[in-house]
Amino acid sequence: MTTPFPVHQLREELRPTPDVALAMAAWIPPEPKAIALVCHGHAEHLGRYSHLVTALAARGYAVYGQDHRGHGRSSGPRALAMRFDDFVDDFHYLSERARRDHPGLPVVLIGHSMGGLIAVRFALKHGDELAALVTSGAALVIDDGVSATAKRIGGVFSRIAPAAPLPRDGSGEDKLTYNPEISRQFGLDDRTHHGPTRFRTAHEMVVAGEDARKRATGIRLPLLAMHGADDTLTYPRGTQILHERAASSDKALKLWPGMKHEIFNEAGRGEVFAYMLDWMDGRIVR
């Protein structure tokens, strides 16, 4: 990933536990004013966020991120989450590294999709370490229309066959964006997971999302909750609940019309970046 201005780039392997190797990357502009942690979604990797990284670094943010365990260049069974909060603990390890590199700088956490759910749960546990929280299409509700019986069956399968494939919905709809080129690139990317979602991963996400919604009153830091209004992969209702229940005195809800799940990849992403960065800049106090 290259930028049209000078940045110092880091690529390293982090080991939060001896059996887990995480591919970390950072882009550090001269004299950064703050740290931006970028938390990617399910079945993808940090490399898909080049446009976001460039926009953040251009505004003076030192950008840190990693491929989650089981994703991209990191170790682990592909896209299998046996315990959802392993992602949260891994990301806290990254956060500690970023704060050691830049002591005293404020930290903004940006999470998309499953990464948005990770970010919310991170903020519930480590909110005092953050200056602000930004979510994009957070996976707080992914099971609209799924019956209670189907959820119970899914819970059973998640225990006895955690890596088993969850049946696809069969709609054939492109749910990522209105730009078919994005889905084409996703399909050609050898670092994305092209198989079906695992039963255990889906179950862990549903349970983690339900718990996060219940405990959203524990969010007290500045919050920008964004979602594509046309998203049917994760549902805007989850983001609306997060915004409504968060105890933050400084919070904003932005539903982007004419956008699906990946608002950072839609044709209007420049407007999304500008809105988000202006909001972030207003919350950075040094």
Tell me briefly what this model is.
With 286 residues, the chain is α/β, with parallel strands linked by helices. It has one domain: Rossmann fold (3-Layer(aba) Sandwich), CATH 3.40.50.
Q: What is the name of the CATH topology?
A: Rossmann fold
Structure annotation, total helices: 8
Overall helicity: 25-40%
Shape: globular
- Beta-strand fraction estimate: 15-25%
Number of E strands: 8
Unreliable sequence segments: none
Reported for the largest beta sheet, the result is: 8 strands, mixed
Oligomeric state: single chain
Mean pLDDT: 94
Radius of gyration: 18 Å
CATH architecture: 3-Layer(aba) Sandwich
H/E element sequence = EEEHEHEHEHHHEHEH
Describe the SSE topology:
Blueprint: E1 8-17, E2 20-28, E3 34-39, H1 50-58, E4 61-66, H2 85-101, E5 107-112, H3 114-126, E6 132-136, H4 148-160, H5 180-188, H6 199-214, E7 223-228, H7 236-245, E8 251-256, H8 269-281
Parallel strand pairs: 3-4, 3-5, 5-6, 6-7, 7-8
Antiparallel strand pairs: 1-2, 2-4
Helix pairs in contact: 2-3, 3-6, 4-6
Structure description:
- The protein has 286 residues and is α/β, with parallel strands linked by helices.
- It has one domain: Alpha/Beta hydrolase fold, catalytic domain (Rossmann fold, 3-Layer(aba) Sandwich), CATH 3.40.50.1820.
- Helix content is 35%, strand content 19%.
- It has 8 helices and 8 strands.
- It has an 8-stranded mixed sheet with strand order 1-2-4-3-5-6-7-8, with helices on both faces.
- Helix 3 links the parallel strand 5 and strand 6.
- Helix 2 crosses helix 3, helix 3 packs across helix 6 and helix 4 packs across helix 6.
- The longest helix has 17 residues.
- The radius of gyration is 18 Å and the shape is globular.
- It starts with 7 loop residues before the first strand and ends in a 5-residue tail after the last helix.
